[in-house]
Sequence to fold (185 residues):
Amino acid sequence: MNGAVSPNRHGRGMAGALAAVAAAFLSTAPARADAEVADAQIAVVRPLEFISVENLVFGRVIRGATAGTVTLTPAGVRTSTGGVTLIGTDFQPAEFAGMGTNGQFVDISLGANSILVSGPGAPMTVRTFVIGSTPTAVLSTNPRRFRINSATGIFIFPVGATLEVGANQVPGTYTGNWAITLEYQ
Fold:
């Protein structure tokens, strides 16, 4: 037959028979629906309150045979020292937002001058928390006084810090908590 498809007894070729089988299969297949659940959030800030907008994320690094540091500035610039190699772009300074009144003073302090982040290996120290003010200032457990300089009283401020990475630090995810306190004057 030289490769030609001969019609079957109903006068349809092989393609027609396959189409009929596919149509029969599709017509008997039940309809399928799928649903996913997603979150929606909003934080409404009232006067004399503040919230965390973004977490402090140092991103990804490759450990070295020697210890080093990762410094993340409030402006989002990341640098390293020693045996630490920076990779990726998934890093960000912490960010906070609040509301007071124009000209109002706010005292800002930390719960501790340094914290430990824990993971699969030895804990690492996060230290030298820096607020993105003009000029930038190192935060500590001693309150620093700032003035709200916004006609609406709304303010946003970023915070960076320095992470100490050990020599041959065990790979994995490390996390920790830190506290920042605002006292409206």
In short: Residues 14-28 form the longest helix (15 residues). The longest strand covers residues 154-165. The chain has one helix and 13 strands.
